[in-house]
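Hi all, long-time lurker, first post. I run a small reading group and we've been trying to get comfortable going from sequence to structure in the token notation. Rather than ask abstract questions, I figured I'd post a concrete chain and ask someone more experienced to write out its structure so we can walk through it together at our next meeting. Sequence below, copied exactly:
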Amino acid sequence: MTDQITKKKRREAGAKRAIPTKDLPDPRFNNEVVFNARPTAPIVPTRRLAGQSLTLLIAIMSFIASLTFGAVSLIDESARTWQSQISREATIQIRPEENFDADQALAQAREIALSFEGVRDAQVISLDGTVELLEPWLGTGLDVDELPIPRLVIVTIDETSPPNFQAMREAVSEAVPNASLDDHRAWIARLVSMARTMTVIGISVLVLVLAALALTVVFATRGAMATNHDVIEVLHFVGARSGYIASQFQRRFMVIGLRGGLIGGVLAIVLFLATSWWAARNLATVEGEQLAILFGNFAIGPVAYAGIAVMVLIVGLLTALTTRFTVLSSLRDIDERRSDPSYEP
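-- Answer (accepted) --
Happy to help. Here is the structure in token form:
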């Protein structure tokens, strides 16, 4: 009898020891059972070598896109400056001839130009000034008496209300037969055409870069889905909505896109700032002066910086949307294969 009581007590003690302490009721929670829940892992791994490579690739493409946008903005601003400077002036050219008083002809042409409305000023370029204009091409020590150098009158134009160039040209030609008026319209047309061509080229490069980015994200998304194919199919078959699965991939790849786009945009801004600093430091040199004439100080304006910031957002948004469409398309393919009678999971 004593042995039976001893065995019974041992069984009760063993049963008590077999109950996990985490499943015992806690008096602080009204005798409710508390379980230690295990955190769930994300569908798309947060750290992978492929994700780092994709970030680097997006950063390179974003850098190229931002650089192209900034370059197009710089060229467009320079073209506007050239156009404004050229359209602000007109030139009266008087060709030398034998037994011809050039000084009198220059004074007469100046007076005719000043008589037209829309002309702010007219300045005769002296002989020494003409020689200085020719020095970069013909060198120093020119004997102007042996060369048929034309003389110039620079006419300053009111851009808001320019004069009638055709009437001015006819009046100058009648008073001085060997004089001609150049209103620089041909140069302005060439500058506008060049600016439009560069804009079209820049837009084409941006479209190609964004298209390549979208294709890269498609392949990366399909690779991530292939890696997690079993998990995705199980979730999809047990009732997980396609939008939920797509949102998991979309969130992850959007972070990658924003990170890569931000890296590329910041590098492009740093490059423009460094180039502007270098141009300002070398402005006194001959090369710096020539570059300043063409492109100013290589500084892009606030609009260009804002455009680069928008470009980063576009890269992130394009990455997210491309990922979402790719995942939804892949899930539709899974549904179509599942509806096939010959389908075997």
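A couple of things your group might point at:
Residues 15-39 have pLDDT under 50 and may be disordered.
The longest strand covers residues 151-157.
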